[in-house]
Design goal:
The structure holds three protein chains of three kinds. Helices cover 67% and strands 4% of the residues of chain A. By secondary structure, chain A is mainly α. A three-stranded antiparallel beta sheet of chain A has the order 2-1-3. The termini of chain A are far apart. In chain B, β1 and β2 form a beta hairpin. Classes of the chains: A mainly alpha, B mainly alpha, C alpha/beta. At the A-B interface, α1, α9, α10, α11 and α13 of A face α2, α4, α5, α6 and α7 of B.
Chain lengths: 420, 320, 272
Amino acid sequence: MSVSSADPREHSTGYLPTGNDIQRNIASRRRRGLVWQIVFLSSLLIGLLALLTLLYTIVDDSFGYIAVQTKIDPEELSDRPLEELSKEELIEILRANVSAGLFRRFDRDEPFAERSKESVLQLIEERVIGRDVVASYKLTESLLERERIEATVRERFPRAELEFHSWINYDFLTRPMSSVPVLSGVGNAILGSLWVIAITMLLAVPIGILGGVYLEEYASDTWYYRLIETNINNLAGVPSIIYGILGLAVFVRALEPITSGAAFGVTDSNGRTILSAGLTMALLVLPLMIINAREAIRAVPQSIRLASYGLGATRWQTIWNHVLPNALPGILTGTILSMSRAIGETAPLIVIGASTFIVFSPDSVFDKFTVIPIQIYNWTSQPGSQFRNIAAAAIIVLLTTLLLLNATAILLRNRFKRSY
Amino acid sequence: MEQEARVQAESSISAPFVRSLRLQRRMRIGERIVESIVFICGALSIFTTTAIVVVLFQEAWLFFGSPEVDVAEFFGTTVWQPETGRFGIWPLLNSTLLTSIIALLVAVPLGLGAAIYLSEYASPTARGYLKPILEILAGVPTVVYGYFALTFVTPVILFGLLGRGNVEVYNMLSAGLTMGIMILPLVASMSEDALSAVPRSLREGSYGLGATRLETSLRVVVPAALSGILASVIVAMSRAVGETMIVALAAGAGPRFTFNPLQAAETMTGHIARISGGDISYASIQYTSIFAIALVLFFMTLLLNLLGGWIVRRFREVYE
Amino acid sequence: MQTINLSAGDTFQENGKYAVELQDTHIFYGSFRAVKDVSLKIERQKITAFIGPSGCGKSTVLRAINRMNDLIAGSRLNGRILFHGKNIYDPDVDPVEVRRRIGMVFQKPNPFPKSIYENIMFGPRINGWRGTKAQADELVERALRGAAIWDEVKDKLHQPGTALSGGQQQRLCIARALAVQPEVILMDEPCSALDPISTLKIEELMLELRRNYTIIIVTHNMQQASRVSDYTAFFLMDADRAGQLVEYGPTEQIFTSPNDKRTEDYISGRFG
């Protein structure tokens, strides 16, 4: 067949740009490419913008002016600042200033002998001093519209004083919750979280590691191995609220004698305890632990195992002495990630029955509980700007904790990555 | 001759050899015990799944068996009002689907766009910074997003854009948009992994034919990574359907069957959270009803997860 | 075998005998010089082979000709590479246009995970091709015939390209390159991943394609170079690990009476 160079426009194979047309064609394609590149970049930036907006909203709600008025001036109660008084002196002040019936009720809720000093102080502030925040303002407002705020407050609340308040402060971290936002704190929520996480990790970490060991080191490719594997992958995708339902039916209800402590002699509680919460969260976190442990174990080079077997070690000896120590950084990272997940989960604990109003600190696994995310949920869902303020403060506590945890995980991962 | 020497050598070391044999047998029992323990740990997951299935079915059975409830009514009607004995799941199901679809409409285009940018356009240093930031977004607890929905999305965006009179304080659009932002990093991360996994040789082949970066990305790389991208969408849908806190805080309390996203309508998960958070007796129909709802939810997410897995397996073959 | 028509009319002016010319070309990856001072002229409608031991820059030079090195961060080129008299590294030249006119076949066959038909039509479509379905079918057939694979795949055009055997995949990649009507085809060790029979088929194909295209091939296989090429360029790594052009000339001369002793040593197998 011969070669022909006919006019491409009429060619039987269609029209392909040639000559100067090529450059025009390329120019328009380049333009289109630029447009789409901007579109893609914008998608990324929108995501980042959302994160920034989220952080901004939280910070905005956590600091700002408040207008405060009090019933009684604290200086009328004692010539020394209240924080310096001993607990007994504070109790006396309380007794002198509230009705006897009210005093007895406080004692019944939690005996004064067992209360912390902060708790008594909080009661005084709540009931005696009557520190009342009548208005609160966001940070940007406070910084930019100060005069307007001052004018409004002077007009509407003449008795009130304007002060700059950081909703997240030492008191906030140590006090139990209160129905008055400004006197509220996440103290017992932090403790509750710690208790629940402790039980969760105590169960999930060993079982998760051993489960990972089974799947990677012991199991051969049988039907039940594949079943377990599929199972775990499925469980990782089950919504967390279903774990809550599971916990409700099994731990709170069916196993109530155990989880409420009745079997151990505890009489005044039901199944909605720290123990139930811990068990439920352990089940939730277990698939993640197993998957992480598997990856960490799989990353250990086969040569280490072969060397150990070659010296006559048994399978468990090899695992215990060589595989696990080498997989430890990965397992540690996985543990921390599981912890982060457990700390932030709210839905299952709502279903289990986290208490919405507790003022005392837990001192056994059979106690009722609340955790930080539940507090955030409670406060966010209540109307009133001040509840948003303390919700934001609690969010800062939660996010800081998670940030520290994840930073640790990343540091550990990077530190140990070079060891091979 | 050789054989004799060998037998002689063996018999001369027989005594300590035999002793060590006995040691080995003892250790093997220990090994067996360990083996059983680790097997139980691995198989515990089966217990969890079985427990979930048993619990859900058991209580749902009680629910459907009680006189006020009719299966046809459950799946067929659009009113959920326990006080009057009407149990139609559609209000809750509809709200779940609507909020999830809104979330996907936000998360999939933005997430995929972000993934394409990270994988095909961004420099390695930029990617090194941006990908971890996306992962941070993914690690924020959902209750914080719920707070965000109420304090920012609803007031600023919805009231600001559409006017306070047209939008209810609790509405499905806020919840859906916020959920979209929550699952965006998930879609972006999984899609970016899928795109990065496409071998370099395919891109080179495309450039070699005179293609621009856009053409290579959209016409060669994305189609080659399609199974991974689809899987990420399915996982995102599953997350959206199962999400509780954002909808509990922002979508509304109270089942309502409506297609208007500016109205409040409780989702399945929100309803479960609200009812179980209150005081309910174990014998009441309220109690069993949440198990029936949870059963539907469980099946939905199970189907989605299985679908995702199937898509990955089925389309991965076309790859290389 | 049928062939595809050449494109008529260029922005690059005709330069008579030589399709591509390298002048004092140095190629760097970052601060490392990978190729040093290469100058040669590639004659049109002939097959030129680059030979030499591994790592001496043959592929780097080849990929510089269609600006594929641009895709590697930190790579740059000093000197000029002229295509029809115009330096393709001039700032006003778009690499996309260069690659449209100078096609490439890679060492490992890389068909797209699309149908055979779509593989062929991909190039024309993105380059602004317009036509009817019948014209598209015709284009696909011609490209596949040009790569000597039409008879083997004509009944399965809509099956994935990845389902073919290795040798067929490589011929599909050649057909794909032909579909955008290039003038020069670069081949980077096209047969190194293939079996001997496929290799033979592709060598026969090359000789056919030479009628209408300029072909530059990098090969490890000296026998292949002596079998198919008209001109041969021999590269070697110098003390700084930079590739250098040692000798360049008609294949027969290089293989029977090379001027440079190093060339002679390599040809006779004393190293390599």
